[in-house]
């Protein structure tokens, strides 16, 4: 399997090259030359397959011969060492919990997979030059990447996050590890952080000194393995015999795009719902066909505070850039903080289940779509543990009685961060540190 740049001005590369580069030289995102269709026998027997068997079957076409079968099995076994439970809340509504990993967020899967792939490739190449992973985060990506790459030999991680726009726990996950992890607090929004990362990849004064790669979902090894938990959900829900609807809290659109990839590989899905907060670029695009990002709006669902989602170009590519075709498979709704808070309260009172703000937006999108469909079975993704958003959650549901062990350990630690205001300050760190 080779990968091409969606800007189509760069050479095609193998999976390992795409992972190490992160972004193509022409600033385009890498995309697989073909979308593999999994055999009918896989779908017929999926309920009898283990997580590891599903993962190896689904990921092998994407990695090709860059990773041997035994090593791929070892990687996915390590990556998938936690559960992905489905909790039914109502007759037609369930949630897929994706917060049982080490940083309590869905991004643990992609970050761990990428870290292990990158470590494998560097070892195979016997590469002596250090690789710098440069990543922007709106909340959960940074923590997952930091933990996934922590103490990995030959890799330095530099994380940019918007000042005052991540939760306290999210910030501690970025700033308390030390070792090969450095956190930069940026005076700006996530879109500003993401723009700095993209600019650095094209700056020869930096790339002449450092080998850069990215661990945002622009990297294929971060993006593609997210399709796995959709397959796990299908395995559990296949027996219901109903059309499936997935509602995905969406910010940078890597998660929902991975789910759509699973669908293109043969997984039956009736509809995807991209549920967003007050950053409404995609709902407006789906209605008008005009892609017009605005200034990013800060919300309590901060990991979705993205106005210009990088991965939407991949979503469009999956549907051959045809809006009418995309509209038959994607619906998008937006919700403000007031409605989000009310939903957390209602679900807690009616179902005794605590949603995080992102999951609440996903629940809202699912319920809105299901209003006109009495046959489908809906799944919304709970992408992060609610304990990561205590200032937003506790005024609604009351004081958390028992914090998870991951959080208990974090709150005792002091973090270290470096504050930057613009790209030139970032560039100074990238060109001077360890040079």
Number of alpha- plus pi-helical segments: 20
Structural class: alpha/beta
pLDDT < 50 runs, ≥5 residues? none
Largest sheet: 6 strands, mixed
Proportion in helices = 40-55%
Mean pLDDT: 92
* Arrangement of strands in the largest sheet: 4-5-13-10-11-12
Distance between the termini: 36 Å
Strand fraction band?
Answer: 15-25%
Total strands: 14
Globally, the shape reads globular
Radius of gyration: 20 Å
Question: How would you briefly describe this protein structure?
Answer:
This protein is an alpha/beta fold.
Could you explain the architecture of this structure?
It is a single chain. Helix 3 (51-63) packs across helix 4 (69-79), helix 6 (140-149) runs parallel beside helix 7 (168-175) and helix 16 packs across helix 18. This protein has helices spanning 15-21, 40-45, 51-63, 69-79, 107-125, 140-149, 168-175, 190-201, 204-207, 220-223, 227-237, 254-264, 281-288, 312-318, 323-327, 337-351, 357-370, 390-397, 405-411, 423-432; strands at 2-5, 13-14, 30-32, 86-90, 93-97, 131-136, 155-162, 181-186, 211-213, 244-249, 271-276, 330-334, 377-382, 418-420. The longest helix has 19 residues, at 107-125. The chain is 44% helix and 16% strand. The protein has a 6-stranded mixed beta sheet with strand order 4-5-13-10-11-12, with helices on both faces. The chain contains 20 helices and 14 strands. The protein is globular. The two termini are 36 Å apart. The mean pLDDT is 92. With 435 residues, it is α/β, with parallel strands linked by helices.
């Amino acid at each position: 399997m080779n990968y091409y740049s969606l800007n189509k001005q760069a050479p095609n590369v193998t999976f390992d090259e795409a992972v190490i580069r992160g972004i193509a030289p022409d600033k385009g995102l890498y995309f697989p030359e073909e979308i593999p269709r999994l055999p009918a026998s896989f779908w017929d027997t999926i309920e009898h397959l283990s997580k590891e068997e599903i993962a190896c079957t689904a990921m092998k076409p994407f990695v090709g011969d860059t990773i041997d079968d035994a090593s791929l099995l070892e990687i996915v076994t390590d990556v998938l060492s936690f559960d992905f439970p489905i909790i039914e809340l109502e007759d037609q509504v369930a949630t897929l919990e994706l917060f049982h990993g080490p940083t309590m967020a869905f991004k643990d899967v992609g970050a761990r997979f990428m870290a292990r792939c990158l470590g494998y490739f560097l070892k195979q190449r016997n590469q002596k030059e250090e690789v710098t992973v440069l990543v922007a985060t709106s909340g959960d990506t940074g923590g997952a990447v930091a933990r996934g790459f922590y103490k990995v030999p030959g890799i330095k991680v530099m994380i940019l996050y918007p000042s005052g726009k991540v939760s306290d726990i999210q910030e501690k996950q970025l700033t308390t590890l030390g070792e090969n992890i450095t956190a930069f607090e940026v005076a700006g929004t996530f879109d500003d952080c993401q723009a700095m990362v993209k600019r650095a990849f094209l700056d020869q004064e930096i790339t002449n000194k450092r080998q850069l790669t990215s661990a945002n979902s622009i990297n294929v090894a971060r993006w593609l393995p997210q399709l796995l938990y959709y397959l796990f959900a299908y395995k559990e829900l296949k027996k219901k015999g109903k059309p499936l609807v997935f509602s995905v809290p969406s910010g940078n659109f890597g998660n929902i795009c991975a789910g759509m990839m699973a669908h293109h590989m043969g997984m039956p899905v009736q509809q995807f719902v991209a549920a967003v907060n007050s950053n409404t670029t995609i709902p407006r695009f789906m209605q008008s066909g005009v892609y017009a990002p605005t200034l990013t709006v800060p919300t309590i669902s901060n990991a979705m505070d993205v106005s210009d989602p990088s991965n939407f170009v991949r979503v469009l590519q999956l549907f051959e850039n045809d809006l009418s075709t995309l509209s038959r498979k994607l619906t998008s709704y937006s919700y403000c903080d007031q409605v989000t808070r009310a939903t957390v309260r209602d679900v807690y009172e009616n179902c005794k289940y605590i949603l995080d703000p992102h999951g609440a937006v996903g629940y809202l999108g699912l319920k809105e779509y299901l209003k006109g469909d009495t046959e489908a079975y809906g799944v919304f993704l709970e992408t992060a543990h609610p304990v990561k958003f205590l200032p937003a959650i506790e005024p609604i549901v009351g004081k958390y009685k028992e914090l998870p062990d991951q959080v208990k350990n974090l709150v005792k630690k002091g973090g270290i961060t470096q504050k930057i205001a613009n790209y030139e300050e970032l560039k100074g760190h990238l060109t001077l540190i360890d040079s």
